Amino acid sequence: MDLLQKLKDPQVLKDLTEDAVVWATQHGLVMGLATPTPAAAVVHAPLALTPVPFPAGTFREAEAAAGAFAALVDAVAEDDAYLLATLRPTAAHDDFGVLAHLRSDYMLHTPTGSLLQVEINTIGVSFACLGGLTACLHGHLLGRLGAGAAERAALPPNDALDQLADALGAAAQAYGVEGAVVVMVVQPGERNLYDQQWAQTRLWERHGVRTLRRTLSELARDAELGADRRLRVGGAVAAVVYFRAGYVPEDYAGEAEWAARERVERSDAFKCPSVAYQLAGAKKVQQDLARPGQVERFLPDEAQAALVRRFFAGLWGLEDLADPDTAAAVGAALRDPGAFVLKPQREGGGHNLYGAELRARLERGGPGLGAYVLMQRILPPINRSVMVRGGEAVEADTLSELGIFSVLVRRGGEVLVSRGAGHLVRTKAAESDEGGVAAGYGVLDSPFLV
Amino acid sequence: MDLLQKLKDPQVLKDLTEDAVVWATQHGLVMGLATPTPAAAVVHAPLALTPVPFPAGTFREAEAAAGAFAALVDAVAEDDAYLLATLRPTAAHDDFGVLAHLRSDYMLHTPTGSLLQVEINTIGVSFACLGGLTACLHGHLLGRLGAGAAERAALPPNDALDQLADALGAAAQAYGVEGAVVVMVVQPGERNLYDQQWAQTRLWERHGVRTLRRTLSELARDAELGADRRLRVGGAVAAVVYFRAGYVPEDYAGEAEWAARERVERSDAFKCPSVAYQLAGAKKVQQDLARPGQVERFLPDEAQAALVRRFFAGLWGLEDLADPDTAAAVGAALRDPGAFVLKPQREGGGHNLYGAELRARLERGGPGLGAYVLMQRILPPINRSVMVRGGEAVEADTLSELGIFSVLVRRGGEVLVSRGAGHLVRTKAAESDEGGVAAGYGVLDSPFLV
């Protein structure tokens, strides 16, 4: 079935767009309005109207690597000395519970046909819930287009929402205090709140665990750390503190917010993530792990290490420009800036440098350059997609990024849960170098395995 | 469990309000915004935060009477001569398919403890879908309040959404043309569109039947009646024409819209409702049926007739003010206007006269008075409710109306489906004499059987 061919009929396109908007709105695949009038108003999340073709074998490989990446991040987060040496802040080792919800993001690299890792996210990982719903939406829309069973089987099942809820539930159960809650640390005015609310609702339905939503400022005021290392928020004991904030400097308005984060860290609650896990996801660590022998240091299993390595793109730190490898990479980037990207250490997106900007920044040099890593630019295939935003459909040339979730729940040395946890495809216009779904550039999508 | 007692705690009230808004938004219990910016934006439907106490025995009685009321309306709609004599328009008898989706609305009458019928709706019956979802919402919220199994059992199951979809599916199947569709006739700019869209989505999921949404003006342009009496809309054959519009004069902008209605009526499609069914729901007919012997004429089964009669409130036509019964009722209304209501024949609400206005209209008299019926005013119990609109909770004295749905599918003389089809409770502020949920006065609610 050539899906896009069917959409050439304007009536089919109009009807399917309405189907998509209605289904998404009926099933909570929604976001807050930019200007909420009235409060509580929502609109469907930005969507691709049909799933994007994706090579099946490559998709399965990325799924199979989810556990190895979780093991790698876990081993790095456990190694205080390594984090200290690599990042130079204090990384307090966590004896207590760790809940990791990770997403490893990839793009297909056209010149080689391989899948290359863009980054691995260890904090505030979003779109497990809306991404899972998008798979259901696309199943519905394929049915409306008259797809048969074989074609619908090309949409892989996506249990990302249940997996996140079950990991939160497993951590809360392992914490072992009746009535203890999950504290979700959120940003004020979050528009992507239904992606978060679905985890709360599903956690309640499947595990009977309640969630409190608090900003870091509210935690600074209300969270108390007892001598028993229990964290109490408004009378409830926190079994899990789940960060959907706290990864950009703006989330820490002042000392009080930093102190609240420290109180969480020193408590015996499961943290998603701990500070060590958050640090293990830094691009600086990603760059260090790309050096020969580093992955093998953390993953003694050779096959596992090799599985992880095959997804690595070229990646160079810029602290020591005299280093021969670094100098060679910088030289190549100055000659051919289109084949590279300059990425800042900090999370949150929106600050990458490409092309002429990249070249200018490299030429300017200076000590600030060490805050960036230089990365091989991945050249993904260009697809044709219909993107639906605010009820309106727009067709465009697009490129897609595949995310593979994994969850890991560990108490001290005991790993309670470790598994792949669904997937996510985000698609954006090919001419847009930057931006996520929540920022208004991309749309939620699914892989149509070919 | 005294639900409202728990809500006296401001934190419990705040948390439960958020729970209600989130659950409703996740599950498509939503309406369009009054000023949709962007297009496709929605907000949760107005809601009661907790279900309203309702006597269990009375609720069961009303459920049990659903079939008898459907049989009554069906018999009336079949009797051209009766409709002609009662209403004086031409009532073309329909040989073909009839799909009835009825809702009989009741209120508890405090002086006698009995349930009295407010009206029976035969066209454009709304809130089967959002009402069914409200029952699920209240089940969820009771759980969040810590209700046990016994308390949750006090919320009767409500399959109103599936019943409507199944009735539409049964009619489409009986029509017997592969690929034939349901044409839903809608008002332009409908805010309550998700109540309608749920019927479409569920019909597709359960029966694989598609729905086209068209205004009467669009039908006037696009609907063609063939010599074979098939109605074709945009290339599709209409198995069912389902009116969610066409019951107020404003829906018929001109002759073209009246002609479109006639084309539908002359086609062999199942009509929900036929003109005869729509007429059978007129308040004038309701008033005529209240006269001695009239119900018995249409329902030969004595027990069935008695079952229906017990819900009748006092009801008097005003064409012949010299009639002794009428004169006595008008005299009583002038002395005690608070015990009566003056209702216009037309549907859609918003025009009833009460109190001083009622007395003034009766005193003014004139031939226009015949367009009204005088009705015993039902005096329902006053409850205390928390109503949630646009994310905000407001507590108020309220009164509630119970609706019992029924469906009937008939082809010629053969009744294919006839059954009760769920319920609806709407609650409004006690000081508001008028208005529905869609108009912004009432909220969706559920019965908590006591």
UniProtKB/TrEMBL annotation, chains A, B:
InterPro entries: Glutathione_synthase, Glutathione_synthase_C_euk, Glutathione_synthase_N_euk, GSH-S_sub-bd_sf, GSH_synth_subst-bd, PreATP-grasp_dom_sf. Its EC number is 6.3.2.3. It catalyses: gamma-L-glutamyl-L-cysteine + glycine + ATP = glutathione + ADP + phosphate + H(+). Pathway: Sulfur metabolism; glutathione biosynthesis; glutathione from L-cysteine and L-glutamate: step 2/2. Residues 180-280 form the Glutathione synthase substrate-binding domain. GO terms for molecular function: ATP binding; glutathione binding; glutathione synthase activity; magnesium ion binding. It comes from the Eukaryota. It holds the Pfam family GSH_synth_ATP. Substrate binds at residues 103, 123-126, 190-192, 196, 244-247, 426, 437-438. The keyword ATP-binding applies. Mg(2+) binds at E119, N121, E347. Keywords: ATP-binding, Glutathione biosynthesis, Ligase, Magnesium, Metal-binding, Nucleotide-binding. GO terms for cellular component: cytosol. Binds 1 Mg(2+) ion per subunit. ATP binds at residues 119, 283, 343-352, 354, 375-378, 401, 428, 434. Its cofactor is Mg(2+). Belongs to the eukaryotic GSH synthase family. PANTHER family: GLUTATHIONE SYNTHETASE. This is Glutathione synthetase.
